[in-house]
Known about the structure:
By secondary structure, this protein is of the alpha+beta class. It has helices at 52-61, 81-100, 114-134; strands at 3-6, 9-11, 16-21, 37-43, 70-75.
Amino acid sequence: MDLEVSPALTIPAAELQWKFSRSSGPGGQHVNTSDSRVQLTWNVDESTSVSDGQRDILLTRLGGRLVAGAITVTVAEQRSQLRNREVALEKLGNILRGALAPPAALRRATTPTRGSARRHLAAKKRRSETKQQRQRPTGD
């Protein structure tokens, strides 16, 4: 089953490597015999489905998650291997979409408006007066 990351990028199923193992957690006797945990690995370095520009972006932004140029997603949330496979594909797709997304626009520094500064100071003054009235009267 191919992984559609975006309209411009679809990873063919042949490039995805699956590994299955026994999952921990609930499931009774059935869990001892079924390999429901899923490990999905995709090699960014050797992939033919990404352009050179996309590859550079992925290698840069996912550098901390890559091991020998490959990204691995492990899922053992569900009791069913099929459902874990679907979740693993979703997770990998989300990771790749996030890495390929254009960077957010830089925040431009602004100064507070005159009205907001005046309201801020008025609120501070009211708070100060409230606290002043809580103090014990000084007995001169």
